[in-house]
Amino acid sequence: MDARHKWVFxxxxxxxxxxxxxxxxxxxxxxxxxxxxxxxxxxxxxKMLFFCNGEPPNVSFxxxxxxxxxxxxxxxxxxxxxxxxxxxxxxxIQTSNFExxxxxxxxxxxxxxxxxxxxxxxxxxxxESQEIWGEVFSISSCDIxxxxxxx
Length: 151
What we know:
5 helices; globular
């Protein structure tokens, strides 16, 4: 285990609001150090997902590492928090500059609420700041939405 592992465990402890030692203990118990190391070495792996359910001291963890061909929302996210570690580049993550090669974040279990929060806080203000937001220059530009073509 090196500084990259410690960085991952520290980020997860911050996102899950638990002690870093709890994350490290889980990783050791489940044998996750090797899959995490493979993530650092294999540029094809783009993400690691970690899940936390419950409140301290009754917390359970799970992880999804190296399963790149899975699509959709993992089943573990039905409740709790999903934390992600994403590779930013297409090269191996070295111990010299790993802090610039990965980002960490999380989603609460309710994806719809997270999406609405992003829309309200980022997307809608960005669209509203556009000078031509909401303006229609001619009625004919809307005709394509109201015209029914014969089949």
